[in-house]
Amino acid sequence: MNAPTTRHTIPDDTLREVAQQHGTPCWVYDAAAIRGRIERLKKFGVVRYAQKANSNVHVLRLLRELGVVVDAVSLGEIERAVAAGFVGSGEPAGIVYASDILDRTVLQRIAQLKIPVNIGSPQMLEQLAQASPGHAVWLRINPGFGSGFNRKTNTGGEFSKHGIWHENVQECYGLIRRHELQLVGLHMHIGSGADVGHLRRVCDAMVNEVRKCPIDIQAVSAGGGLPATYREGDKELDVGEIFDVWSAARATIEAHLGHPVSLEIEPGRYVVANSGCLVSEVRAKKSVGANQFVLVDAGFNDLMRPSMYGSFHQIEIVPQAGAPARGNVRPTIVGGPLCEAGDLFTQEAGGGIVTQDMPEPEVGDLAVFNDAGAYCASMSSNYNSRTLAPEVLLDGGSRRLIRRRQRMDELLALELSCD
Ramachandran region of residue 23, left (φ > 0), alpha (ψ -120 to 50) or beta? Predict the structure, then answer.
């Protein structure tokens, strides 16, 4: 049985040095990988990064330097974008707010910064108009169907909370006119991992919605959901094919409107997933009946995706410096330290336990979770009262700490301050 192929380009010595300097678990990102992804997307008019995938301020600054703009789905993400140098105004706007509601605090900040809002309900229009007359808006339309690699990533159809149901859009146009809001464009996103067949259906739906729109618009958004690769043999996304499908739809829209229209793409996972890894240390191993367990110092509070979605992350064993390469590859269940039976990284959707083939490690070796740049650090928690892990950005020959490890006194501060 052969050992799995390494999925990242970060040298083992660098991973060992990061672990030695910053401890484990620790997130590591490669800036060159992020730049490469943005370069592939440049043919789209506007690349609007969905920062929920990875919202570290230093990653956002890197993307701003590359000409990318962002969306925000919370007050915290607005403030992260501002801290990274983005502004709400401009053409295109540096920030667009795209949540399902407008809570009062967010509404105040949006009005102050003049951040356009991607609207998902009639009530959002009314609340925004009252707080900020004449505000710029997008309409997110649920076309009546969805797609995604998992039910929880499907953002269209009757069971999705996202967007305005396609049969109710005319009501929103009436509210926009009544309250004299500025309609920038229409947005449509049906889920993560949508294939080209679904994409063509979305494009047809977008064209039909533009034809029915009684207000002139300046832009359309293709949404996000661009897939990343996680397994050896996964097919790489053909960005050119995606662009060609949307470019044809835009041409039809421009012919109908009689003027050019900006095309936005809204990637998150695609930009950062393959740039990052989670570095952990092997702390124990044991046989349990016919199963081989390897236990590491990272838990699902650090990397939630396998427990939440049954998502796959290839796990690579990096031996200690000077140690020989590990042999004796065998099927292995990998788990963490949490007081939870579900704290396992080798799961499938529905919670079934699976294995990964890997060399049998020694305690002290590193276990590296590949393709962990998206929806990993950003979904971390303090469950079991564990502190948030540090993040490190590699950029050429430089290595920068971009989030230090959370201290225990910071973990307790919100509670002890109430004494």
Answer: left
